[in-house]
From TrEMBL:
This is Transporter. GO terms for molecular function: transmembrane transporter activity. It comes from Epilithonimonas lactis. InterPro entries: BCCT_CS, BCCT_transptr. One of its GO terms (cellular component) is plasma membrane. Its main location: membrane. It is a multi-pass membrane protein. Belongs to the BCCT transporter (TC 2.A.15) family.
Length: 674
């Protein structure tokens, strides 16, 4: 069959050094889990138990370090640093940004565990000796603990490191970039490939297992609603085929369209469902329990953080199977969620990023878990006579059994199934985007066939594992891989702190002590300049006559001293700049451009203020090659402009001479503004 003349094969953008080893490991592990599910699960469970029992303190300390570090940055002087150049602005509205990171970060799990987890804590034998009221309080407290600040600190740390090194240092959106201050150029070699392979495998395993559990819950809901007659393999195949197709379409539409729109719809739907259950349920009880639970969480925050239950032997198995499992689960998901959060966070300040990521999703999780979880506990105590507590071993159906005790249960069940489906799609489409980003080293030209490939692979392996009983083994493998990545994340903390210290010192460094203040020699000329507002034409004249002449004189003198310099005059954009090129470090750039300024209306009408025909005026503003904010130089004479350039060049030479600044001034990484 002949192909059309205008047909061109899509050019794949995979980095095969990362993609091929990852696919071998992913497919090999899944096949082993399918062919030998019992043996593989038994072996991996033994490894997991050793880690959770004997090395659980590593998780406790690592997660504590992440929380403390982010809180420190939130209130530190580094909080004002932007995730990108100093003049960058956010790409997405605050609502869309929060919606996307929330949908990616919690997704199906929020629906799956909202009733199941509080009920399981409430019913567990670990707290059976406690009074029934204490059990209800503990159920809420530990649910808050597992879904609160600690979980989002794990996601936030990875997202912050990725966003900072990607948009501030202009490194690839890759986990290897987070270790650049420690490994330098070695991140581009085998060490970097190993980190990306780990991230790709961890992301794939985490999404696959979550989607597998999501399919089961969707199937259970559709069966409850009598839409599907059973929960067999054929029905799960139909669900996955439809939802993954939508996810692939959403991913190929890009973040700006498919992912953002679905995330916004999802958050609105969740808020509406939350409000309805709050109204239909025991409203006063729920509001009071949320208020108490929030205070209880704050009061017990440090005790929860450091409690290893070493003195409470009866609760140790519960501690391993819940708290440690959750820390491992969040860590294993952090490459995926962190990459996605970073992808949508350019232009935010570090303080804004941390505050939003730690506080807003946490508060919503608390409200969500309180309304659904406490409603279920209240119904179990006062209406169902323990019927819901007897279903804790069947979390797939527990949500829908709970809804049967509320008015309009069928409508609510339909809404829940729809929300789970949207969560399924948003988790899958953002996962597809992230996996393609990792496997291509953040290529922006990936063909749609690559998105289709990841979608089909996700669907095929999730279904295969689900029906062969290998999903549990894959989940266990995911939890095991969290231990080494927790150590890598501690290195992220060291790496980011090192970079921030250098970054802050770089931008806060003052001018050279050779700075010469104005003299009174040209005071009449300066007064005339001060009391007159410049037009666009007069600024262009200043650039043509003063700045261009100053730069040409300075270039000639530099060349006389053996330094090659170039003067670039760009008439259309009304700017001129002096450039001194370097092979290894960033080029030195000092430019002057025409900038518009809007002044207050009252200045136009005030007779005792300088004449001004409109509230728009112009001035010549400096700019540099490192994103520092420029300033007004309209009062400078030619010689003073030359002197100012020399002060900045003196500063530049002192910075690049400092060995600690090697990372920041590398020619491959530093911003160049021309």
């Amino acid at each position: 069959m002949d192909l059309p003349k205008n047909f061109s094969r899509p050019k794949l953008t995979f980095d095969y050094g990362v993609t091929v080893p990852s696919l071998i490991f992913i497919i090999g592990t899944c096949l082993l889990s399918v062919i030998f599910p019992t043996m593989v699960n038994s072996l991996l469970t033994d490894v997991k138990n050793f880690i959770f029992v004997d090395l659980n303190w590593i998780y406790v300390w690592c997660v504590t370090i992440f929380v403390v570090f982010l809180v420190f940055l939130l209130f530190s002087k580094y909080g004002k640093i932007k995730l990108g150049p100093n003049e960058s602005t956010p790409e997405y509205s605050f609502f869309s940004w929060i919606s996307m990171l929330f949908a990616a970060g919690m997704g199906i799990g929020l629906m799956y565990f909202s009733v199941a987890e509080p009920m399981q804590h409430y019913s567990t034998d670990a707290f059976s000796q406690s009074h029934i009221i204490s059990r209800a309080k503990n159920a809420q407290l530990y649910t808050f603990f597992h879904w609160g600040i600690h979980a989002w600190a794990i996601y936030g740390l990875v997202g912050l490191c990725l966003a900072y090194f990607t948009y501030r240092y202009r490194l690839p959106l890759s986990l290897r970039s987070c270790l650049y201050p420690l490994l330098k150029e070695r991140v581009n070699g085998k060490w970097g490939d190993v980190i990306d392979i780990f991230a790709l495998c961890s992301t794939f395993f985490g999404i696959t297992t979550t989607l597998g559990f999501g399919v089961v819950q969707i199937n259970s809901g559709l069966e409850t609603l009598n839409i599907l007659p059973g929960t067999g393999a054929i029905y799960q195949f139909m669900i996955v085929a439809v939802l993954v197709s939508i996810a692939v379409f959403s991913a190929t539409s890009g973040v700006d369209k498919g992912v953002r729109i679905l995330s916004n719809i999802n958050v609105v739907a969740v808020v509406v469902l939350l409000a309805i259950i709050l109204i239909l349920g025991p409203t006063v009880y729920l509001i009071g329990s949320f208020t108490y639970g929030l205070g209880n969480y704050i009061n017990n925050f440090f005790d929860l953080t450091f409690n290893t239950h070493v003195y409470e032997e009866k609760t140790l198995p519960w501690f391993y199977n819940w708290t440690i499992l959750y820390w491992a689960w969040w860590i294993s998901w952090s490459p995926f969620v962190g990459l996605f959060i970073a992808k949508i966070s350019k232009g935010r300040t570090i303080r804004e990023f941390i505050a939003a990521v730690l506080i807003i999703p946490t508060l919503f999780n608390f409200l969500w878990m309180s309304v659904l979880g406490n409603s279920a506990i209240w119904i179990d105590l006062n209406v169902a006579n323990g019927a819901l507590g007897n279903l804790v071993s069947d979390p797939d159906a527990l949500m829908f059994r709970f809804l049967e005790y509320l008015p309009f249960s069928d409508i609510l069940s339909v809404a829940v199934v729809c929300i789970i489906m949207i969560f399924f799609v948003t988790s899958a489409d953002s996962g597809i985007l992230v996996m393609d980003s990792i496997s291509t080293k953040n290529s922006s030209r990936s063909p749609k066939v690559q998105m289709l490939f990841w979608g089909i692979l996700l669907a095929a392996l999730a279904l295969m594992l689900l029906n062969a009983g290998g999903l549990q083994a894959l989940q266990t493998m995911t939890l095991i891989t969290a231990l080494p990545f927790a150590i890598i994340m501690v290195l992220f903390v060291v790496s980011l702190m090192k970079a921030l210290v250098i970054d802050h010192a770089y931008y806060e460094k003052g001018l050279s002590v050779s700075t010469v203040p104005w003299s009174g020699e040209f005071w009449r000329q300066r007064l005339k300049t001060i009391v007159s507002f410049k037009t666009e034409e007069s600024v262009k004249k200043f650039i043509d006559e003063e700045a261009l002449a100053a730069f040409n004189d300075l270039r000639d003198e530099l060349e006389a001293n053996g330094i090659i310099a170039e003067v670039h005059y760009i008439e259309d954009s009304k700017r001129v700049y002096l450039e001194i090129r370097h092979d290894i470090v960033n080029d030195f750039i000092y430019g002057v451009k025409c900038e518009k300024r809007i002044v207050s209306e009252y200045m136009v009408d005030d007779k005792n203020l300088p004449d001004l025909e409109s509230n728009v005026t112009y001035f010549p503003k400096t700019y540099f090659g490192d994103s520092r904010e420029g300033y007004d130089v309209q009062y400078f004479t030619k010689n003073e402009l030359i002197s100012d350039v020399l002060k900045h060049y003196d500063r530049f030479l002192k910075i690049i001479a400092d060995r600690s600044n090697e990372m920041f001034v590398s020619n491959d990484n530093g911003p160049q503004v021309k």
